[in-house]
Amino acid sequence: MRHRLIHSFEKRAALARLSLVAVLVLLQPARLGQVFQPTTNTIDGLTRQSTFVFRGTVEKTAGSTMPAVPANESTAVVRVDELIDAPGAPLDLAGKSITVKLLQTGSVRAGEQWMFFTKGWLMGNSMAVIEVGRIAATTGTQVIRAQVANTRTLIADEALVRRDGAYRVGPRVELRTVGFWGSGHLFLRAKSEPE
Q: What's the rounded Cα separation, in Å, for the pair 134 and 91?
């Protein structure tokens, strides 16, 4: 009798996990599919377009830290105050000034602080990056760091689903990709392992 209760509990727990995943898929269907269209005004969309995210203070507009990048209205010298997401970037970059090629000419002023979402461009004695977007630094760094990390995890999960066509929900339950619908909905089918 006890074995049946445990077995029944495991089935209910697996079903609960499956239900949770199904609810998440229904609430945000476009996040899991290949047809995701990020917008540049969301942290998710900015993260998907960027390779280097940091909190920085604009030191000088129309400036450059590298001879290879001519200073003009679309460049700014920005001090890296804190790294948010910087795989492959030098670890000692915090506190140093870099060149940012701005998305919009003249859109920053000296002294302003922003969360910059950028792509790497040039490395040398300094670094130059290309801005894909930015948000005001009034939002806490930890909040942005968590959202960026969550998006990086989603990107990795999406790659696994595209590659393997499966997502493991629990020890005995796995979701398999059945297909995508034009609106971006991801159809999943649950498969339970035999006991």
A: 22
